[in-house]
Design brief:
single chain, mainly alpha, Serine Threonine Protein Phosphatase 5, Tetratricopeptide repeat, two-stranded antiparallel ribbon, 2 strands, transmembrane helix, Membrane protein, putative, membrane
Length: 197
């Protein structure tokens, strides 16, 4: 999925990796800003957010499945967890607080696992650790606030979405720049050694 950058000892992103990361960041930012600027946002918005996040994770899975052996299963499990919890949240609004908390804890845990497992092979490892930790902490907070204000869980979820969105948009922009540089340096080294395979 990524090439190793021998100069600094860390992986370099593939040129197209920034697109699925940007998609997920935009989904998170849209939901987070919705919860900030729409005080009476319907609880169904959380279910829609989980479904859209599942779709973004699926797009990422399709982008990395060939380069990161073993990541596909964990990403598919995360996608299923998010999609099922999103649907249940939409169909059973009375249980949505617990379902949302469960979705965030499980998806966060899966991303933390992905981060630890692939931190040496891909730049995504660091970002999975960040987003997974944020999601898991938000899920735990949602469980802790379950008996409080009905608005509190959406606020926690929206706040975590903003933080995840900002982290991922910065990552996507970095991947785009680093991926372009990596592709350009690979191309120039291939051109400087004609006939060498």
């Amino acid at each position: 999925m990524t090439s190793n950058n021998a100069q600094v000892g860390r992986p370099t992103p593939e040129p197209g990796l920034w697109r699925p990361v940007l998609l997920r960041s935009l989904v998170a930012l849209a939901f987070g800003l919705l919860t900030v600027f729409w005080p009476d946002v319907p609880a169904a918005a959380a279910g829609v957010y989980l479904l859209l996040t599942a779709a973004a994770v699926l797009v990422l899975n399709m982008s990395v499945r060939h380069g990161l052996q073993g990541s596909g299963l964990l990403l598919r499990i995360e996608c299923i967890v998010l999609a099922v919890c999103g649907l249940v949240s939409l169909l059973a609004p009375g249980a949505s607080t617990l379902i949302i908390g469960l979705a965030l804890v499980l998806s966060g845990g899966l991303e933390i696992l992905l981060g630890f497992k692939f931190r040496q092979q891909t730049v995504l490892g660091r970002d999975w650790l960040i987003t997974g930790t944020i999601a898991a902490v938000a899920g735990i907070l949602i469980f802790a606030l379950a008996n409080g204000s009905p608005r509190a869980p959406l606020g926690v979820m929206g706040g975590s979405a903003v933080i995840i969105g900002v982290a991922l948009i910065l990552a996507a922009l970095t991947y785009r720049t680093d991926g372009s540089r990596g592709a350009a340096s690979t191309l120039s080294s291939e051109q400087s050694l004609p006939g060498v395979e």
